[in-house]
C-alpha cells in the first residue's frame, strides 16, 4: 500500500517484516481515510540495524511528525527507534506467533525504561495507532481534527444503529 497523496508524509509507518503488513495496513487505511499523508516501509531492528538507525535519525529532518512502529516477537523496533528520534513513537505489538500468545511482542514494546517512551497500543492494535497518530497531527491541523470529529460521530452512529435494531 502506498501513500496516495503527493504531499509531504507526516507519519512514518514502519514494521519489522513484510509478514507484519496484514496487521499494519489498518494504520495506513485509517490515515488515508483521515487525510493524513504517510509513508510506509519495512525496517528491521535485528536484520537491518543500520537502516533502522538511519531511518530514525532522518525522520524528523525529512518532515515526519510521528512514527508508528510495529513488530512481533522480540519486538525491539519501536523502542530502539524511540531511543534515537525525538518524534513521538507509537508501538504496535504484532502477534507474530502463537507460542506465547503475543505476550512477547506486548512486553517487549510496553516495558520501556524511564526517559524513552513508546505509546503502546493493544496487540495487533494498528487501527488505534493510526487514529492516535492522526490525533497528534490534528492538534495543529484543523482539517485532520475535523475528520476525527466526523469519525467519532460515525462510531456513535454505529452504536445507536445497533441500539435501534435491538429495539425492533
Ligand atoms: C519480527 O519478527 C517481525 O516484526 C515479525 O513480527 C516477526 C517475524 O518475522 P518474519 O520471520 O515473518 O520475517 O522481527
UniProtKB/TrEMBL annotation:
Residues 9-159 form the PurE domain. Pathway: Purine metabolism; IMP biosynthesis via de novo pathway; 5-amino-1-(5-phospho-D-ribosyl)imidazole-4-carboxylate from 5-amino-1-(5-phospho-D-ribosyl)imidazole (N5-CAIR route): step 2/2. Gene3D superfamilies: 3.40.50.1970. Its EC number is 5.4.99.18. It comes from the Bacteria. Belongs to the AIR carboxylase family. Class I subfamily. Catalyzes the conversion of N5-carboxyaminoimidazole ribonucleotide (N5-CAIR) to 4-carboxy-5-aminoimidazole ribonucleotide (CAIR). This is N5-carboxyaminoimidazole ribonucleotide mutase. The gene is purE.
Amino acid at each position: 500500500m502506498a501513500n496516495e497523496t503527493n504531499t509531504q508524509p507526516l507519519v512514518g509507518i514502519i514494521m519489522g517484516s513484510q509478514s507484519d503488513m496484514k496487521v499494519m495496513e489498518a494504520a495506513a487505511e485509517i490515515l488515508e481515510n483521515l487525510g493524513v499523508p504517510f509513508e510506509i516501509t519495512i525496517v528491521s531492528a535485528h536484520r537491518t540495524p543500520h537502516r533502522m538507525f538511519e531511518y530514525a535519525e532522518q525522520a524528523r529532518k525529512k518532515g515526519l511528525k510521528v512514527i508508528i512502529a510495529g513488530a512481533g516477537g522480540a519486538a525491539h523496533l519501536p523502542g530502539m527507534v524511540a531511543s534515537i528520534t525525538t518524534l513521538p513513537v507509537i508501538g504496535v505489538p504484532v502477534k507474530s506467533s502463537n507460542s506465547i500468545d503475543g505476550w512477547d511482542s506486548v512486553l517487549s514494546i510496553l516495558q520501556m525504561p524511564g526517559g524513552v517512551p513508546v505509546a503502546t497500543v493493544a496487540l495487533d492494535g494498528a487501527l488505534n495507532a493510526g487514529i492516535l497518530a492522526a490525533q497528534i497531527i490534528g492538534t495543529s491541523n484543523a482539517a485532520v481534527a475535523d475528520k476525527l470529529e466526523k469519525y467519532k460521530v460515525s462510531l456513535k452512529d454505529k452504536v445507536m444503529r445497533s441500539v435501534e435494531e435491538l429495539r425492533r
